[in-house]
Amino acid sequence: MNEQLDLEPAANRMRALTAEITDDDLTAPTPCAGCSAGDLFDHVSGLALAFRLAAEKASSPSDGPPPQPSAANLPADWRERLARRSMTS
């Protein structure tokens, strides 16, 4: 199975969302029970990093399980970090 997925549309949409969302929006509910928008952005940011490290065959900064997704985990520059992590080329 050599088919590659085109992640460019999803990456473009994620970059657009990070540019549009305000800090007040981070507490908004989502369809995922118990997860705020900020929690999901933290989750996606962690996954983007994990996927990139796996593609580069690099080791993870942590050997343990990831922390529970939480808006509280988002650093001040989370928008820029997530935009960089969602680059596909």
From TrEMBL:
<dbReference type="GO" id="GO:0046872">
    <property type="term" value="F:metal ion binding"/>
</dbReference>
<dbReference type="Pfam" id="PF11716">
    <property type="entry name" value="MDMPI_N"/>
</dbReference>
<feature type="domain" description="Mycothiol-dependent maleylpyruvate isomerase metal-binding">
    <location>
        <begin position="8"/>
        <end position="78"/>
    </location>
</feature>
<dbReference type="InterPro" id="IPR034660">
    <property type="entry name" value="DinB/YfiT-like"/>
</dbReference>
<dbReference type="InterPro" id="IPR024344">
    <property type="entry name" value="MDMPI_metal-binding"/>
</dbReference>
<feature type="region of interest" description="Disordered">
    <location>
        <begin position="55"/>
        <end position="89"/>
    </location>
</feature>
<protein>
    <recommendedName>
        <fullName>Mycothiol-dependent maleylpyruvate isomerase metal-binding domain-containing protein</fullName>
    </recommendedName>
</protein>
